[in-house]
Q: What sequence folds into this?
């Protein structure tokens, strides 16, 4: 019985780890998602819906980064999935891109 319980726990950990890795890889393939290699800031935050969102950043070399939804007043670009709170710590929204 004890061996069975340990086996079930180990299997569930492996499955959840595999599912998480699969989710990260699938996110990298989403059209319009930012290419983090082109961004000055690589961090992310979790929005109120529990989604991981690229933190506001500038594109290395200038220009509008792929996947940006708004330009903030401090000249960073937001990748927010909703308008509420977008660029709140970056001086507010200068222009909506989508």
A:
């Amino acid at each position: 019985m004890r061996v069975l319980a340990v086996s079930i726990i180990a299997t569930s950990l492996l499955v959840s780890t595999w599912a998480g890795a699969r989710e990260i890889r699938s996110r990298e393939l989403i059209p319009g998602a930012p290419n983090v290699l082109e961004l000055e800031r690589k961090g992310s935050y979790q929005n109120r819906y529990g989604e991981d969102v690229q933190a506001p950043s500038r594109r290395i070399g200038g220009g509008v980064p792929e996947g940006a939804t708004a330009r903030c007043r401090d000249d960073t670009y937001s990748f927010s999935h909703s308008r509420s709170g977008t660029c709140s710590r970056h001086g507010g929204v200068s222009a909506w891109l989508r």
Notes: The first strand starts at residue 44 and ends at 46. Residues 14-27 have pLDDT under 50 and may be disordered.
